[in-house]
Amino acid sequence: MITLFLTVVLLGQTPGPNVVGRVQFKGNRSFSARNLLGVVSVRVNQPLNEVLLNQDVRALEEFYRSQGFFEVRVERGTEVIKGKRVVTFFIQEGARTRIGGIDIKGNRAFSTDKLKRGLPVTVGAPWTRSGALAGVDALRRFYLNSGYPFVSVHDSLEVSEGFARVWFVIDEGPLCYIREVRVRGNQRVRTATILLTAEVKAGEIFSRRRLEAAQRRLYATKLFSRALFYVFKSDSATKSDMVETAGVVVRFDVVEQQQQGVALGVGFETPPNRAVLSVEWEHNNFLNRGHWLVAGSSFSPDLSGNYRTNFNLTWRVPYLFRARADFQTNPFLNYERFDSTWQENYGVLTGMARDIGPQVRLGVFNRLRWYRQSQPTSGHSVILDTSRGVTNSLLLSVTYDSRDNFLEPRQGLFFQPQAELAGGPFRGNNDFFRAVFDLRLYQGIGNIMVVALRTAVGRVVPYGRSRIVPFYEEFSLGGSNNLRGYPERAVGPDTASSGRYGPVIVNGSIELRGPYLFRWVGIVGFIDLGQVAGQKDILLRGIELGAGAGIRIRTPIGPLRLDWGKRLKSAPLGDRGRFYIGVLHAF
What we know:
The protein is mainly β. The protein has helices at residues 2-13, 33-37, 50-66, 112-117, 129-144, 191-198, 208-220, and strands spanning 20-26, 73-81, 84-92, 98-105, 152-160, 163-171, 175-184, 224-233, 238-240, 243-256, 260-269, 274-286, 291-301, 307-317, 326-338, 341-355, 360-377, 380-401, 411-422, 432-445, 449-462, 494-496, 499-501, 504-513, 521-533, 544-553, 560-567, 578-583. Strands 11-12-13-14-15-16-17-18-19-20-21-24-25-26-27-28 form a 16-stranded antiparallel β-sheet, with no helix packed on it.
C-alpha cells in the first residue's frame, strides 16, 4: 500500500502533455525572459490553456508597444520535448521609436520653453508610455501648484520613420485665488487652531502643494485620524487683461481622535535584576489651543536596595506669535542611588524650533543643568566639590527627516547635527564645546523586511576655565538603546561611581526588521558596535561589539520591544547576555 501510494504521488508530480513544463522566449533582445514572464499569465506546472496563450500574445505585443516598439509581432507555439510541454513565444521586436520632437499646445500663462524644462522626457530618448504619462503628470502638477486647480492635460503621438512627435495639450482653466477656507468635522479642536496649523489663507493663489503640506501638518498634530481637503468653485470666472480668474473655496474635513491618554509601563531588566515602572500622561490639545503637554515619571529599583527615578515634563506651544515657530520647554529631574553614593541631576531645556523646509527643522535651545553627587563620610552625607557643577549652554540643531513613518519607518533618512557651547558668556561652572552627528537610514526590501542603519559620532572639548570636561557631561555607552549586551554606562576610559565615561564617542547599529506575523508580532536581528575613548585614543581595536535578536509587538503607540543582546568581545566568564524591554524601536 505504501509503495503504491508513493508511486501515485510521484506520477502526479510529473508534468503530462497538457501541463506546461517550460516557458521560453525567442527573439527578445531588449527585455530579459524574467521581465517578460511578468507580462504573461502562463505558468510552469499549470494546465495548458489556449485562450490564455492568445491573451498572452496580445499582452506581449501591448507591452512592447508601450515601450516604443510599434512594429512588434508575437507568435506562440507549443511542443513536447522529453515528455514536457514547452511553450515558446516568438518575438520580432522591430525598431524602437525615439522621440523626435516635443510640442505643447494650449498654454497661455507660461511659455513653452518654461514648461519643457520641467518635463521628464527629452528629445532623442526612447518613447515609452510611462514616460508620456509622467510628462502629463509633471505638467498637471506644475499648473496645480501655480494657481490652476481645474487644469486638464492629455498627450498624443505622431509616429513617422522611427521617430515620434509628442504633443501635450493643455486646457488651463482659470487662475484661481482662495476666497474662503472652511473647516468641517471638528468638535473639540477650535477652528482657529486648525486654520493656524494649515497656514492656508484667503486671498492667496491656489497651490495644491501648500494644501498637501497643510494636510501633513494637521496629521502631525496627532489630533486627527483623518484630514482631507476639497476645492470648490465659489463664483464664475472673469477676464481681466486677457487673464481668466476665479475664486475657490477650500474645505478641510477632519475626524478628531483621542486628545489625551495615560500610558503605564512595567518591565524587568536582567542582569542586574531590576524592575522598571513608568507612567506617562499626554495631552495633544492642552488649553484647547493645540499645545502639546507630556508628563512622565519612572522608578527602577533593584534587589540590592538601589534605585533610580526621573521626572520629565515637555510643553510645546506651536505657532508662537502666530509665526511658524514652536516654543518648547522641558524641565527634568533624575535621582539615582547606588551602593553608598547618590546623585541628582535636574534642569530645564528651553528654546525655539522652526521648519525651514518640508523636511528640515532648525532649533535653538538653552540648556541649564545642575548636578551633584555625594557619599557618606563618618556617618554624614557630604557634597563633594569635585562632583558638583552647573552647566549653562546654548545648543543649535538642524534636523533633516524624510522618514515615511515616525513609529515604523520603512523608507527614508534622518540626519541631525548638533553643536553646543557651554560656559564662556553663559557662565556656569563648565566651559566646553560639544559636537554630535546622528545619521539613520531606513530601506524596505519589498514587504519582507526593513534594513535600518544608525551611525552616531560625538566629541566634547574643554576650553577657557576648564582643563577637563566633568564626567557627567561626557559620553557613555551600553544599554538598551545603543550597545546591547553591555550594562548601562559600561564603556569609557574615565571611571566614576555611576559608570564609565569619555570625551569621544563612536556608535553604530544595524537591524534587520522582519514583517509582522499575524499583523502584530515581528522578529528583529541586530548588531551594535561602539567605543567611548579619550581625546586621542580612538582605535579600531578598541571597538566593542554586541549582537542579538528581539521581538516587536505592534501597539497603537508604537512597537513594544523585547531584546536579548550578547557581548561578543571580552565577555566575562558566565555571561549569558542581557534582556531589555522598551517602547519603540532602538532607533
